[in-house]
Amino acid sequence: MTASISLREVGRAFGATRALAGVSLDLEPGVSGLLGPNGAGKTTLLRLLATALPPTQGQLSVLGLDPQVPAGRTGIRRRLGYLPQELGFPRGFTAFAFVDYIALLKEWTEPAARHAEVRRVLGLVGLSDHGAKRIRAMSGGQRRRVALAQALLGSPRVLILDEPTTGVDPEQRVTLRTVLAEIARTSIVVLSTHQTEDVAALCERVIVLDHGRVRYDGTVTDLVAQAAGRVWLADEPDPAASVSWRTATGRYRNVGARVRVGAEHVEPSLEDAYLLLRGGAPEPETTGEVAP
């Protein structure tokens, strides 16, 4: 089975609202980071890849299978791990019981093997000692790690993650990056996040979506290089900058295509490059992607 995902002119509309338009991508084993403002189409794209939504135009192939064919969709889901932006937990479940329930849905019918796998994925996300804890008594970060654990069941060949580190403390985020990097040696991992530091630390490739279209698709280093010489410090916000903000030192970090002569340049970050790509545009006020 081909370990790849192919999109050709894929689009998705909800009534008169176009969430994705003409997206063409090829995804191979490794970690691809997905960036973009709220409403850019990130969650819609992930739901297409996870076979939770069909495209309204174009062609999509996952692991060489067509998700619009029932047999193909079933074949993909057997090899897929999916962490949606929001995941509902049945009332009263413990962490172990919830992940075990998902394992049953994924056709892990032999109890001993299934329970061993549940313990393994809980260990990967640092919850080995919390399996008997009820999810309703857990912190937000712990619940997010339970949700990630169910996505890791069976070492899936395709792993789709929507904001996996939301609410997770810095130490655990570092651990999760190690886990995902190991999985990505043989699997396709697509990671959508607003945490540019996660993308910079984990992803070689970054895809930037805006208004349902691909604005950038390439390496993280190449995107950061586009901001070289376009980030500078000043005592006041610079009118020439696309975006400026006050740093902890009291000085202002400025990002823009037009740099005044004599500016005090600093090394750009991925966040700087992302803001430059978008022209310093603020995030829309919407809280999520368009949904049916």
Q: Mind telling me which CATH architecture of the largest domain this is?
A: 3-Layer(aba) Sandwich
- So what's the overall shape? globular
Beta-strand percentage range: 25-35%
Strand order of the largest sheet: 5-6-7-3-8-9
Domains, number: 3
Q: Using the coordinates shown, work out and report the CATH topology of the largest domain.
A: Rossmann fold
The count of helical stretches stands at 9
- CATH class wording of the largest domain: Alpha Beta
CATH superfamily of the largest domain: P-loop containing nucleotide triphosphate hydrolases
SSE series: EEEHEHEHHHEHEHEEHEEEEH
Tell me the radius of gyration: 21 Å
How are the SSEs placed, and which strands pair?
Elements (H helix, E strand, L loop, with lengths): L4 E10 L2 E11 L2 E6 L6 H8 L7 E6 L7 H8 L2 E4 L11 H11 L5 H14 L15 H12 L6 E5 L7 H14 L4 E5 L3 H7 L2 E6 L2 E7 H6 L5 E4 L8 E4 L5 E4 L8 E2 L4 H8 L15
Parallel strand pairs: 3-7, 3-8, 5-6, 6-7
Antiparallel strand pairs: 1-2, 1-4, 8-9, 10-12, 10-13, 11-12
Helix pairs in contact: 3-4, 3-5, 4-5
Structure description:
With 292 residues, the protein is α/β, with parallel strands linked by helices. The protein has three domains: 134 residues, P-loop containing nucleotide triphosphate hydrolases (Rossmann fold), CATH 3.40.50.300; 69 residues, no CATH class; 52 residues, no CATH class. The strands form three sheets. Strands 5-6-7-3-8-9 form a six-stranded mixed β-sheet, with helices on both faces. It has a four-stranded antiparallel β-sheet with strand order 11-12-10-13. Helix 3 packs across helix 4, helix 3 packs parallel to helix 5 and helix 4 packs across helix 5. The two termini are 32 Å apart.
